[in-house]
C-alpha cells in the first residue's frame, strides 16, 4: 500500500500541471473583445497635417507663455498631445486647483499637469569633465538598475 503523503504529492503535482495548462491556454486564446494594441484602421490625418497642427499650437504656446508664467503657481508651459492624439498647450503647475488658467488659447485646448517645482540641471564645470558644457547626471540622479 502506498503512503498517503505520496498521494498528496502526486495530487498536488497533477493539480499544478492542470492549472498551468489552463492558464497557458487562456492566455494564448484570441479574445477579440479585449484588444492589446491600437485600433485597426487608417488615421484620418496625414503626417503633414499633424505637423502643421502641432506647429500652430507651439506658436500659440510661445505667444502665451509669459502670460501663463505670471500666474502664481505656474512653473512651466509646453506643447503636447492629449489622450486622443490632438496637440494641446500644457501648463505645468506646482499644485492642483490653480485658478486663472484658461481652458483654451486662440482655439487650442489647454491641459494642466501638476508637476511640482521644476529644477534645471546645471552644466558640470569640474576638471574631470574638462570644464566643458556637459551635465554629469550621476552626480545628481542615481540610475535605477534594470528590472527594478
Q: Let me know the average pLDDT.
A: 78
Secondary structure category: alpha+beta
CATH fold node name of the domain at 47-114: GMP Synthetase, Chain A, domain 3
**How large a portion of the residues is in β-strands, by DSSP E?**
15-25%
CATH class of the domain at 47-114 reads Alpha Beta
Q: Widest sheet: strand order?
A: 1-2-4-3
| Tally of DSSP helical segments | 2
Range of helix content: 25-40%
Please give the largest β-sheet. Answer: 4 strands, mixed
What global shape is seen?
Answer: elongated
Overall strand count: 4
Q: What string gives the helices and strands in order?
A: HHEEEE
| Span of the ends, CA to CA | 50 Å
Second CATH tier, the architecture of the domain at 47-114: 2-Layer Sandwich
Computed over alpha carbons, the radius of gyration is 27 Å
Summarize this structure as a short list of keywords or feature phrases.
148 residues; alpha+beta; GMP Synthetase, Chain A, domain 3; four-stranded mixed β-sheet
What does this structure look like?
The chain has 148 residues and is an alpha+beta fold. The protein has a domain at 47-114: GMP Synthetase, Chain A, domain 3. It contains 2 helices and 4 strands. The protein has helices at 4-28, 47-69; strands spanning 74-81, 87-93, 104-105, 108-114. The protein has a 4-stranded mixed sheet. It is elongated. The relative contact order is 0.08.
Can I get a quick summary?
The chain has 148 residues and is of the alpha+beta class. It contains two helices and four strands.
Amino acid at each position: 500500500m502506498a503512503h498517503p503523503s505520496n498521494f498528496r504529492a502526486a495530487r498536488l503535482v497533477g493539480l499544478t500541471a492542470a492549472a498551468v495548462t489552463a492558464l497557458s491556454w487562456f492566455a494564448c486564446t484570441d479574445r477579440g473583445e479585449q484588444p492589446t494594441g491600437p485600433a485597426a484602421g487608417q488615421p484620418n490625418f496625414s503626417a503633414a497635417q499633424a505637423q502643421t497642427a502641432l506647429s500652430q499650437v507651439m506658436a500659440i504656446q510661445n505667444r502665451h507663455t509669459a502670460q501663463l508664467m505670471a500666474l502664481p503657481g505656474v512653473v512651466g508651459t509646453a506643447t503636447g498631445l492629449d489622450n486622443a492624439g490632438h496637440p494641446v498647450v500644457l501648463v505645468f503647475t506646482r499644485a492642483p486647483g490653480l485658478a486663472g488658467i484658461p481652458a483654451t488659447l486662440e482655439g487650442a485646448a489647454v491641459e494642466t499637469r501638476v508637476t511640482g517645482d521644476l529644477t534645471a540641471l546645471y552644466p558640470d564645470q569640474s576638471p574631470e569633465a574638462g570644464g566643458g558644457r556637459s551635465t554629469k547626471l550621476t552626480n545628481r540622479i542615481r540610475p535605477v538598475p534594470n528590472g527594478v
